[in-house]
Amino acid sequence: VTERLTRLLGRILHGTTRLLPRERRYWAEALHAEAGQVPAGWPRLGWLAGGMLLVAKEAGMARKIGYWIGAAAVAGVAAWVVWLSWRTAPGADPERVTDRIRVLVGAVALIALPWVARQRGLFGPVGGSVAARLVRVAACAAICCMGLALVRGDRHAGINGVIGSGSVNWLREAAGLAALSTGAAVLLIIVMARRPKTQHPRLWGVVLGTAALALALVPFQAIVVGYAALIFAATSRRSPLAPATLAIGVIAGLPPAVIYFAVTFASGNLYSGMLAVGLVVLLVAGAAGAVAATRVTGIDNPDELRSARVTQGVLAGATAGAMAGLLPTAVFLIMGGMMILGPPIGIAGAAIGAAFAADRRNRREALPGASGNGSEASLVGD
Amino acid sequence: MPRRVTFSGQTLAVLAALAGQPSSWRHGYDLARETHLKSGTLYPILIRLADRKLVESRWEEEQPAGRPRRHLYRLTGDGVAAAVAALAEAPAAKAPSQPPAARRLAGESS
Prior knowledge:
Largest sheet of chain B: 3 strands, antiparallel
Oligomer: heterodimer
Structural class of chain B: mainly alpha
Largest interface: A-B, 24 and 21 residues
């Protein structure tokens, strides 16, 4: 049996060597060539199994498999969204075409998510830190949840639903067109992401104008698209957020999200929850901003150091505010108000905290013998 | 400023095995036996060391009878220097868990 298994594994190893980049293939061939020297039986089988492991490692199989599983999951959600919508809309609905196009645009956007995330440029590929990878995967899952919840909720929403049936409403027809324009804008953004060196101010003007129109007509969809873009930008390799800043912001955003749920359901009043979570975000973002700011070290110029610290602090606060809005909204769409209010409140709180922390550290570092000797900024966890 | 490079215990074992006979070309199975590392661990280490130009490799020049040509490895000049420095700096506490070759070389260079 082991002899057959050994032969089989040898053939598989020989075949899978092609998965490796050309300049790495000879390593697997070298391992395969050595197999004849290893004693027959289990030792040789183990040697060849190690070769399979080598191919898997060097070909980045785990990452590729993870990507395709993620892509399949997102495509599955998109298909579910389309199916739910098709099943719901009655055949005689005059708005059916617009509605379905709107759903299709949403589904295409969902399918494009993993692809956009992979492109080299503003939105990808993902940064090397664990925090960036986790945040990106979790945020994609949250956005998929929101898409599903929107369509599922709409089945019970009657004629006033976002995708529901009803008589002709010109405002909604215009919204449908705006959604289509947003889809086109997403395509432009994808093009820009693929070719980051291309600078077209007019193109960006069109995109921003369309986004503003979409924000007025289909606010929720526009906000979600904006969130997706910001999350990709924040977790990409070119992101200005240090891994530590991202981690601090995400962790700081969790308690306000829980408090938002607790207060809203305890009081039965959404506005009470928003008020409470707004105050908590302000406080927590202040602390997160201060902590993120103090993680920046190693810049000799005090002005540059202060500026870098405030920037990282503010980014941590914005992340905390965004998380406090995104997480509850992924579960209950009605809580989506904090997706708009969270980031500015977080930025406000963090700006105060970061400014305080940056100044205090500067004074300490100005003491004789306390200055850093590094020539470049270093961010803990980078 | 050059980044200080640290090696894992397993990499130190491979470096020690190669540094034991710096002028000899060694083959993978030979190294695996000496370091007690599995092929799936040994070869990625050799790849990383080769990427850092600490190890050089070549195929056997002549086709031996009855078996395929083997891939051979040895330390470069930089590799020898890096191995000696790394093994000298390796914490003593790690030594017992290292294979014999690593312990031997660490002891020699300290």
